[in-house]
Amino acid sequence: LCAVALVTLVAAGNDVTKDRKFRQLESVKEDRKVKVIRNGNKQEVSTYDLVVGDVCLLTTGDWVPADLMVLDSHSLAVDEASMTGEPDAIKKSVEKAPFCFSGTKVMEGEARCLVLAVGETSQWGILQMALRGKVSGDDD
Fold it and tell me: Which string of DSSP letters, residue by residue, matches 37-60?
C-alpha cells in the first residue's frame, strides 16, 4: 500500500513539473521579437511590449504582430487565410489594401507600418475573444 502511494505521488509530481515546463515553452513560443522604430530608434521588442503608435518593420516570413497600416512598402504580399479564408496572398500598399491584420503572415516583400491596435483590440484578438464567448463590453 505504501509503495502504491509513493509511486502515485512521484507520478503526480512528474506531471506537475512537465505541465509547468510545457506552459513556459508555450509562453516563449508566442513571445516573438518584432523590429520597430520607437522614439526614432530601431529596436527589437517583444510582441507583448508593442504599443499603438510604434512603427513596425516587416519582412518576408514575419508574422504580423498587430493591426497595422502600411506607411510604405516594397512588393508586400500577406497571407490572410487565418483571418479571411482567402487562399491567395493579398498585395498590400499605401494606395491599395493598406491594412495588415494581426495573426497573418508576410509572404513576400517588406514594409514600414504604423501599429493601430494590439492584443484584444486587434481583429485577431476580437476573433479569439468571440471564439471564447467573451464579447467586448461583457463584464463577466
Answer: EETTEEEEEEGGG--TTPEEEEET
Give SS3 for 16.
helix
Q: Are 19 and 12 in contact (CB under 8 A)?
A: no
Residue 100 grid coordinates: 495588415
Asked if 93 and 87 touch (Cβ cutoff 8 Å), the reply is no
Over residues 73-84, the pLDDT tens digits come to 999 999 988 878
44 Cβ contact list (under 8 Å, min separation 6): 33, 34, 35, 36
**Set of cell numbers at residue 101:** 491584420
For the chain, the straight-line distance linking the first and the last C-alpha, in angstroms and rounded, comes to: 46
- Amino acid (one-letter) located at 67: D
Residues of the chain with pLDDT under 70: 24-31, 134-140
